[in-house]
Structures are given as C-alpha cells and as structure tokens.
Write a structure and sequence with these properties.
This protein has 214 residues and is α+β, with helices and mostly antiparallel strands. The protein contains 4 helices and 10 strands. Strands 1, 2, 3, 4, 5, 6, 7 and 8 form an 8-stranded mixed sheet that branches. A two-stranded antiparallel ribbon has the order 9-10. Helix 3 packs across helix 4.
Length: 214
C-alpha cells in the first residue's frame, strides 16, 4: 500500500466570542485545515508553514507555534485502483490576523468556535477529535503539553475511520457573515480583489522547529 505524508497547522485566534479556529472550504461540503504533501527533503514543520502560506497567505511571522503540540490524522482512501495510506501531521499555532487570502482551489473559509466547527465537520470524526485536543491544549497547556511530548510517532498500520452525520453548506454563491461562522468567498473562488498578483510565497525560515520532528 502506498503511503503519503502531509503536514499542516491548526490555526486559531482569540476573539471576543472566544477561541476561533480557521477551517478552509474545498467545495462539495468538504472543510479541512490548511495542509499539503511533504516535498523533497522538507521537514514536517517546514511543509506545514509553506502550505499555510500558499493556502491562506499567512506568513510564518504571523503564526506562533503553541508548545510541543503535534498530532496525527491517519486514514485510507482510494486513488484509481490503489489504496493510499495517508498520514497528516498537524501543529497548532495562534495568529492575530483575521483576513485570509485563498488560492483558486479553495472556495471559502471560516473562523469558527469549537461548537460551530464540530457542526460543519460532523462527517469527519477524527478532525473533530483533533480540534477538541487542540482546544484542551490551549486551555490547559502545562498539563497537556507534558503528555503530548511523550506521544509516539504514528503507527505503520492504518485504520479506516468511520464517518457519520452530514453537514449543510450555504447554498448562496457568495459567502457572507452568518451565525454559523465567518465565510468569505471571492468570485470564481479566487483571492480577494487586489491580491491576484500576489507573489509566490517563500519557504519560511524563521521558526525554530519543535524538538520531536518526523
């Protein structure tokens, strides 16, 4: 079975309504965190920062990694005749930026409280577990950071997650501010006006990698 490893970041910011998480909308009722495949000799943290810059416009200088948080999402999917075992390595970072510059392959994004995020991710139980773990880590850093530092690397044997439930995507073509979250969409799925000529992001070099790297 072919194995693919990706990396990304669970991004949050503090608001008057509490902690809100950034989730990107890919279309067809699919929401997820900014992430992508590890390329060449990249370390997982380097991939995570590069993918966040490419998918959201957020620079590494605008992100603050939280402790030693590092978790994994593992699942199997089919690509043509092949089964693919995918591992997603996720870090946790805080930002003060609320505006996101989307790439053309994303249709929208939202900043969601934990209950809101759990509703739109209802089909993806493991993503909900990751958010719950991140939320608890933010709230109780000392206790959970010590526990997280002992976490072993992902097992080589995949498991097939059970997905249940459904989510409802707004039917309107342009996203607006709604009670269930803060949606934004540029016509044709492109970045906001004035950002289409945004230069290609560079690989972030400023952050110091966490000690437990893959």
């Amino acid at each position: 079975m072919k194995k693919v490893i990706s990396a990304g970041i669970v991004i949050f910011r503090q608001t008057e309504e509490g902690i809100k998480f950034l989730i990107l909308y890919h279309g067809r009722n699919y929401w997820n965190f900014p992430k992508g495949k590890i390329e060449g000799d990249e370390r997982s943290w380097q991939t995570a920062f590069r993918e966040v810059r490419e998918e959201t416009g957020l620079k590494s200088s605008e992100l603050k990694l939280i402790g030693n948080f590092k978790t994994y999402e593992k699942f199997v999917y089919r690509e043509g005749p092949d089964d693919i075992f995918k591992i997603v390595i996720l870090y946790l970072a805080e930002t003060t930026q609320s505006t996101i510059i989307l790439k053309e392959y994303h249709e929208g994004y939202g900043w969601f409280t934990l209950p809101e995020a759990k509703r739109i991710l209802a089909k993806y139980k493991y993503s909900i577990k990751i958010l719950e773990k991140a939320y608890a880590y933010i709230k109780k850093p000392e206790e959970l950071q010590a526990e997280n530092a002992k976490q072993e690397n992902p097992q080589t044997q995949p498991h097939r997650p059970h997905y249940a439930g459904s989510i409802r995507h707004p039917q309107r073509r342009n996203f607006n501010i709604q009670r269930s979250g803060h949606y934004r969409r540029h016509p044709q799925g492109l970045a906001p006006s004035g950002t289409s000529n945004e230069p290609k992001p560079e690989l972030p070099t400023s952050p110091v990698p966490p000690s437990n790297q893959i």
